[in-house]
Amino acid sequence: MSKGLSITNLRLNVAATGNDIVDEVTLTVEPGRVLGLVGESGSGKTTVGLAVLGHARRGVEIDHGSVACGGIEVLTLDDEGKRKIRGERVSYVPQDPASSLNPALRIGTQLMEVLEAHDFGGSDEARKARVKEMMAEVLLPTDDEYLERYPHQLSGGQQQRVGLAMAFACRPSVIVLDEPTTGLDVSTQEHVLATIRSLTREHGVAALYITHDLAVVADLADDVAVMYAGRVVEHGPVRQIFTSPAHPYTRHLVAAAPDIEGGRQIVGLAGRAPSPGKRPQGCAFALRCELATDECRSAFPVVVSVGESHTARCIKVGTVPTSTVAVPLGARTAAKGDPIVELKGVNAAYSGNVVVHDVTLTIRKGECLALVGESGSGKTTVSRAIGGLHREWDGEITFKGEPLGITSRRRTMAQRLGIQYVFQNPYGSLNPRRTVGDLIVRPLLIAGSSQAEADKAILDVLDKVNLPASYSGKYPDQLSGGERQRVAIARALVSKPDVLVCDEVTSALDVLVQAAIVDLLGELRKSLGLAMLFVTHNLPLVRSIADEVAVMSQGRIVELGTAETVIGSPHEDYTRRLITATPSIARSMA
To answer: Cα separation of 560 and 69, whole Å?
Structure first.
């Protein structure tokens, strides 16, 4: 039995109905190697990752299959046995480091707890030495002052590295990493990925890396498994998956992934994967596949060998081209529309501490200005000042030539309706107790529109964001993440604004949904003449959506120009460092 990770014919069901969530999952990860597990939201990636620890979320049951970690069969252990191997034989790194660390305990205490729980080292002296060693392994300070800090005193990247230190503490055989860099900027992500890579190889750990960021997989993983609707539909070496994908779904994933090297337009995919209980008898992807035939719909395809260690579950393998068709990126010109929002010498502070210095920007009609930089560079503070959500700023911000009040309450109704804000998290920005229709028309009703006008506006704006009219009666918890973000955009559009401020609106979305949202925003700019401020740390996406780019560092604009110039031929060392730190499929495959 492998000393790494071995999953054989794994199936998990919805406990109440017996419908499969994941089925027929068979994967192997050898010691010292990284397997990237990719697929859109709801494909079953995290469900598989948790099953590696012998865990299933509430309402989910493990039906059958085998999971072996370091030679130990996990699923046959009792609760006590599973608790013992978690952390000792198999570890888990969650997406959000802040929620995985106890805010009431110092980080040194939390690291010691992991070692004490498994009696690692055999003595307090040995464990204290191991804590220092753990901190050094993840490139964090080893002094006592640092270990005395609480989680809130660390940055997001430092918190994530503490989480990695805890995961590697007892030298496990297997580690499951569930989207560990999703909320991190590229510089911090580079450090975390380098840490994962070195610890995995140096200590012979089998790593299962769950993500929807294909560029990270291309940079980090040795092999890739692609999941769709609960099944693994393609599996193989990372180079073959990215250069010669065999399954149509994999080709769509690769086509939807933005790349910092540019040169091609990202392409979305209509529809969504069928959920448990609604999956067809045949290939689940046939509902969205342009190559599907009656044969595809009659039975789920068997595993077909594509090449050495490369398999796919598609009857069309070998009959269609395996290369991804690239759509050339359209040429972009400098912004030429009339100025809608102008910032002149804007400074912003928190409790008197100035964090944004002398920012001057122009957002023009029908054009998109991307504001990029590392976490803490001041991007969101600037965008919130424009939206009237940050009160501690000075300088001048004008809208259509008229000065804006400090906060939204000091602005006219026309100004408030003219600048609309779309937040990063669609799960937190929509009231769960209101229907989609109620959420969308709220700005109009506040502005004094009649209910009849509001009802008509709902249908119009849902159509603009490609959602059916029936969604007006649904609640947010009945929608996917991409659909929620479309509702948030619809709510911003209903007042017919001149400017849309988009704050990291795609950071929590998988690549196919992200591509669809980018397509939508592009169409809205063309059809409505919207001006857009697009705040992001996703540099590859900038080339697909922005006309101009402003790069922020330590509260200042350090570079400003067209997207092609700034991303393709940057002048500033800081911009070059950001671009170099950004994972790239093209660079990894070169």
So the answer is: 50
